[in-house]
Amino acid sequence: MELTHFNQSGRARMVDVSVKNDTRREAVAEGRIRMQPATLALIKAGAVGKGDVLGVAQVAGIMAAKQTWQLIPMCHPLLLTGVDIGFAIDEAASAIDIVATVRTTGKTGVEMEALTAVTVAALAIYDMAKAVDKGMVVEYVRLTAKSGGKSGDYVRNDRD
To answer: Which keywords does the record carry (predicted)?
Structure first.
């Protein structure tokens, strides 16, 4: 394995992807935000004073994916062709699971965009509900799959 974000002097650089072929690329990331059962009940009921928590989180995640290149120094600005954010309520764990799927056709992958989308969606949930639960925990943010590009496909297994 070679780390590509360093030049010959060991200094950070943005990788030159100009010689790479455009390919269809997709990345899926997941994460979770845990909270008090009462907080989850408020979110489910649409009773959080700031508004539709999951609606806001969905838009925040999409916007974050589109802005990843401005947040992560060595990321390239990408023309994303699709971003989807999904939520699943886990009553037993008093948590909301978040899944982001990001797509592009281009010279570099969208793993960072998917991870950023999940993270910011979770942070938006936190922001919307922090007045009633400051103890929420964002956890398990991880890449679960990617396809396309020179490095090929990746599917996370439980041992990763």
So the answer is: Lyase, Molybdenum cofactor biosynthesis
